[in-house]
Amino acid sequence: MSRVYDTIEPAVIDDVMLSQCVKEQGPKNQAGKIAEQEGLDFKDVKVLRLDFKNILQVENLWGFQNLVKLSLDNNIIERIEGLDTLIHLVWLDLSFNNIEKIEGLSKLTKLEDLTLYSNRISVIENLDSLEKLQVLSLGSNFLEDLENLKYLRKFRNLQSLNLQQNAFCQKDEYKSFTIAYLPQLIYLDFRMIDTETRKAAKEQYYFDLGQLEEDEKAHNKVMEAKLAADKEMELHVDAYVENLNGNQLFLEMYEEDSDGKKLNKLPTMEEDIIPLFEEKFTEVCQKIFEFGLESRESRKAEVDTFFACINDAKSANRLKAAEAVEEFFVYKRRLFEQLGSLKNSSEIDKLIGDYNDEIQKLWDKLMGLELQLVDQLEDTIKEFERSLADLVLGFLEKQQERFGQLRELENVHSEKLLEISINMLEKMLKSEVDADAITDDLREMMVDKDSVANAVSASHDRHLYVIDAREDRIVSNINGWMTGLIDQVHNEQEVERNRNRVTEINHYCDNLREEIDNLEFGAN
């Protein structure tokens, strides 16, 4: 089933092997010569075959960023790894290896065709992220448990499944079980499933399927609710107001406030004071939350408008550059026709000189357009920075004002708590309080006025700390977001974009010069 390598020297996937494979599998003849002159760029490779190479470990494929199809069959690979960067992969062949576990595929979300034929796999697992999977081959492995096939029910796009030469294929119910529990399949073991076979399989497992489908519906409902909640929380986090749409911050103030919890047991506190304090506190938190969501929409609109302007400017600039290049191509085609009919070397040299002058003019024009775009983007980015800073400042000023309201509510509550606590202490000292009205914890705390004042002060400090920490988090997070976004804009839209464009223009014009230098003329 699998290849052994006790007498085979494992090969390493290095630049030498990769370059050789790309060259062998690349364009041939004149196109191949041009590709070789321009150099091998792995990121341009869409298809790569690394079969029959005695490869033991998958590695060093990070440069193939746009790879769509990869063959790693007929090697001695023991573990699926090193594929995380190949996010555009659609087709993957890992057949005829020594793989024991399905793993390392979670990043390949575009994968449609996966072949793991003839390995040592005993469990179908770890394919959850491959929602686009259409073809799966797991034939000639160590699969024994038919129940494991139910795992594949979640892959709604799965149309073709090969399981031949596994242990469970010897069971009488193998075919009917597979067809019944995987109704999305069109082909099983390379044969189309006909209507009668499908109907018979469904009838055979009618009751079990009914219960399974009910369980799946219930599970899906729970998962949908969880996904909706996660999406909602993601929105709240993005607005910097997560867990502020209720009494969570109020409850957080008391989480590590043992003194406050005890004092809340005082008569009138539990019945009147605390509920009113919580209600007012939560109302302000709700205002912070709602304003946070509103502000997020404003920031999002500003960011979307900015990038739309950037893209429009780049598109318009590219269009002008394309017009200049097209105009040059018309000239170039005409000139090359003339050169093909000339025999006189002086006339040829003159035309070549004119051609190089035109290349220089094209370079000047393209660079001029790039400088115009640089100036335009610089002005747009500066305006965006100012607008974004104003939005963030307005958001922070309003939110800090409301956090001030929370602190004021806490101050008032603390003063009232101190007043009630001292009054209760005085009544206790005069034996004017029913013994059952005070808990043992309170009696231990309320020894004298200093003890009571210290307890109230500790509770107050804890509450202010929680309020301040939440406010600081909002300030820190939104400022960090703004700084990171502006840095990203400068790097991607100014520095990197300009560097890449200048390199592109220079490379293009150099190729034009090399093209005529490599031409052969029949001069006398």
Concise account of the structure shown:
The chain is 61% helix and 4% strand. It contains eleven helices and eight strands.
Characterization of the model:
The chain has helices at 15-25, 29-38, 174-181, 195-204, 206-238, 248-255, 258-263, 269-341, 345-429, 440-445, 449-517, and strands spanning 47-49, 69-71, 91-93, 113-115, 135-137, 160-162, 187-188, 191-192. With 524 residues, it is mostly helical. Strands 1-2-3-4-5-6-7-8 form an eight-stranded mixed sheet. Mean pLDDT is 90; it is low at 29-35.
Specify the structural class: mainly alpha
Residues in helix, %: 55-70%
- DSSP, total strands: 8
Rounded Rg: 36 Å
Mean pLDDT across all amino acids: 90
**SSE run:** HHEEEEEEHEEHHHHHHHH
Biggest β-sheet: strands ordered side by side in the sheet? 1-2-3-4-5-6-7-8
Tally of separate helices: 11
Distance between the termini: 69 Å
Strand content: under 5%
- Uncertain segments of ≥5 residues (pLDDT<50)? 29-35
Main sheet record = 8 strands, mixed
